[in-house]
Amino acid sequence: MSIQRAAVLGSGSWGTAFAKVLADAGTPSVTVWSRRPELAAAIRDEHHNPDYLPAMWLPDAVTATSDAFEAIDGADLVVLAVPSQTLRANLAAWNGAIGADATLVSLMKGIELDTLKRMSEVIVEVADVEPDRVAVVTGPNLAPEIAAEQIAGTVVACRDIGRAELVQRAISTRYLRPYTNDDVVGCELGGAVKNAIALAYGMASALGFGDNTKATLITRGLAETARLGAALGANPMTFAGLAGLGDLIATCSSPLSRNRSFGERLGRGETLEQAQAATRQTAEGVKSCLSIRDLAHSVGVEMPITEQVEQVCHEGVDPLKALAALMARETKPERPGVPSSTGQ
Ligand SMILES: NC(=O)C1=CN([C@@H]2O[C@H](COP(=O)(O)OP(=O)(O)OC[C@H]3O[C@@H](n4cnc5c(N)ncnc54)[C@H](O)[C@@H]3O)[C@@H](O)[C@H]2O)C=CC1
Ligand SMILES: O=C(CO)COP(=O)(O)O
């Protein structure tokens, strides 16, 4: 079995690059939905997305429309690629259009404000589908690099491994190597939390801190991600994989990352409003740091870096003071609760 017709809902950087991946992997028909008719027309008629990926040309199998129902009609794969906080409203508007057997794929890396739900949970609730029908694609996948066919790995997470393998086949190309994983919770948390950590990394970088600081933020950022994951039932090994460490390294270290760049702006002294005004694309961590912090509180988990990022973004705390607050925390073992090694 293979995917014959895919709909990609959202024509930002990743939605557009993902449409190319699907077509390059052999999907005969890929329809991108764009809110703006002029962008849909550029993708459809010129095979080009001038706003988000001006250097990329799309294969002939990719077309576009500004009518979401037209895109979804007959699709056996429905890919959701809108900003996380807009998913619920968008999906509600499309309700009833998604076919009864279609596989739904989330590309989004955020946690919903207020409900504190992961994107796959929002999809299950709003589209009223079984969790087994929802897959998550996540990993170190900066859209401009994938669009340029630079080789990378990614993860297809789904509770139904047969369905994960279906999506795996649908996106397997000579430049993208997908692995399956049944840990949907861990994969989604890895993708969402790394955005908050990348904001902290960007702040530290703009403040002139060096590689020791950056390595510490990555490592302790991963530790707090894994703590949250453990409390929510994720497999700890997921965080050592592409959806955890892999994505964290890519996002923190790349100037292409919107989250890292946003953090750099804050580190240079811009206010949230100034940074937002200068940023056209989605930096998910700016909103998700609030929901991740609340999710952590709800299960009694400490996430100090995410909390300080929230303080800088939403309480106007000076980034340097936020880093100082992290250093002033009580000292503790590196892995509390984990038995000491025996080789001493
Ligand atoms: N860009 C990347 O490299 C990657 C992005 N992602 C994730 O993919 C998701 C989508 O991100 P991108 O495509 O990068 O975003 P983007 O910022 O490039 O584009 C977002 C798209 O959503 C549209 N949009 C904005 N508000 C909307 C609304 N209310 N309703 C419907 N559409 C709306 C925009 O017009 C745009 O087409 C995010 O969760 C992001 O974290 C995941 C992996 C890589
Ligand atoms: O998720 C990404 C890479 O895997 C993209 O990160 P940004 O949203 O920070 O650009």
TrEMBL record:
The active site is at residue 194. The keyword NAD applies. Its EC number is 1.1.1.94. One of its GO terms (cellular component) is cytosol. Sn-glycerol 3-phosphate binds at residues 109, 139, 194, 247, 257-259. Its main location: cytoplasm. GO terms for molecular function: glycerol-3-phosphate dehydrogenase [NAD(P)+] activity; NAD binding. It catalyses: sn-glycerol 3-phosphate + NAD(+) = dihydroxyacetone phosphate + NADH + H(+); sn-glycerol 3-phosphate + NADP(+) = dihydroxyacetone phosphate + NADPH + H(+). NAD(+) binds at residues 10-15, 143, 258. One of its GO terms (biological process) is phospholipid biosynthetic process. Substrate binds at residues 109, 258-259. NADPH binds at residues 13-14, 35-36, 52, 109, 143, 258, 284. Keywords: Cytoplasm, Lipid biosynthesis, Lipid metabolism, NAD, NADP, Nucleotide-binding, Oxidoreductase, Phospholipid biosynthesis, Phospholipid metabolism. Residues 183-323 form the Glycerol-3-phosphate dehydrogenase NAD-dependent C-terminal domain. HAMAP family: NAD_Glyc3P_dehydrog (MF_00394). This is Glycerol-3-phosphate dehydrogenase [NAD(P)+]. The gene is gpsA.
